[in-house]
Fold this sequence. Notes:
Layout: H1 3-21, E1 23-33, E2 36-45, H2 59-76, E3 84-88, H3 99-104, E4 109-118, E5 121-131, E6 135-139, E7 145-149, E8 153-158
Parallel strand pairs: 2-3
Antiparallel strand pairs: 1-2, 4-5, 4-8, 5-6, 6-7
Helix pairs in contact: 1-2
Amino acid sequence: MAKPRIIDLVRQELAPFLIEAGYLLYHAEYVKEGKARFLRIYIEKTPDSEGARPGNPGTDDCEKVSRYLSDRLDEIDPIAEAYYLEVSSPGMDRQLISEEHFLRYQGELVDVKLYESLEGEKQLTGRLGPVTADTIELVNDAGHRINLNRDKVAMVRLTVIF
Length: 162
């Protein structure tokens, strides 16, 4: 089965369970690393009724989802080759991947890595502003708005502050 179809199937199979158990699917990927294949599922807890985000899922949460998905995939057996199933939290420094992520974390402090330096910097930190199909706006500590061309951006992650 092709990678996109595997991910679509996993999303479909997980959706009812995640809703019932109080989780959201943050991201899913099926990748080959060396000779091994990995089906990676990243979950987060469902926000409360006021939209506040609860803490990150713990080991028990990931294990619960892993057991369900493993059993379900064993039943329908959609993946011909051997693979490892990994279920985890996207972490505090989660990478923003989808448009939904960029919308959800607008206003949050993010770290941006660029492919090429901008005014001598390849890494920027600031508040995530509006995002379009072509640009990501970042507001730095001085309040300056920086519009970054999306194809110049290698990665955007939430900033972890201790």
